[in-house]
Model the fold of this input.
Amino acid sequence: MADLEALKRQEPGARERFAAAWWPRVYRMALALTGHEADAEDLAQETLMAAMGAAEHFRGEASEATWLYAILLRRHRSRLRRPSLPIRRPGPPQDRAVQDALSFLSRLPAAQKIAAVLFYLEEMSVKEIARAMGVPRATIRWRLFRARRVLRRTLESRSDPWTTKETS
Amino acid sequence: MNPEERKIGRILVGLRQASVPPLPALAAAVADRSPVPVGRMLAAAGMLLALVGLLYLVPGRAEDPARAIAGRLDSAEARLSLVDHEELRTLLRREIELLRIELDLAR
Done:
């Protein structure tokens, strides 16, 4: 919150500190949503720039993370409505754990994907997720329920390296 | 969390190992709102009011009032998830609040 307050006061270096503090988390969230490194980088950059422009409107009713992720989600939906962007070269191969997570997420529709990532990765509460996504808590619970069902079927249908890890 | 949720959590937490590119140089900040001509905003607000009014005027089949209100509430929430513009979101949130109050009164 200190970074955001400094940003609102337009202190020297506040933008750089704010961006540096949030870049890794916002990038990883963007990667979870887009599934592609180059798109994630663009989305994360847009999000931080938008957040810095809107800092004066932050009233502290939600946490900084909730507020930032709400901006990221709106930017993501906005990008989805744009005409197709040119195909980019893939980035360097990611760790197996990252690939597994992205593969898992790719099975979910966008709304469930977002809810699942905010709940399991960012460990946000249902209330915070509902605020970030602008929907009621019951809707978030429903999306998480649906996401768990899809992911459970995925686990059951595999010969399942994850189940093997569980039992070893 | 039950074992299934813990398993899902372990898989998704793999994303924390994603290599993060260096922070790019950020240009001048851009506000998180797109300017919308006043005329379009007024037209959108007018359409919203017309829709709400129509729902009251058009005779519907006899049904449990609470269910009808719950249906309108779901519809409003679905529309909110599609709208980016802050002013429209504020109007929709207000509509949702009023519908929730109406639903509580109908029960």
Residues 163-168 of chain A have pLDDT under 50 and may be disordered.
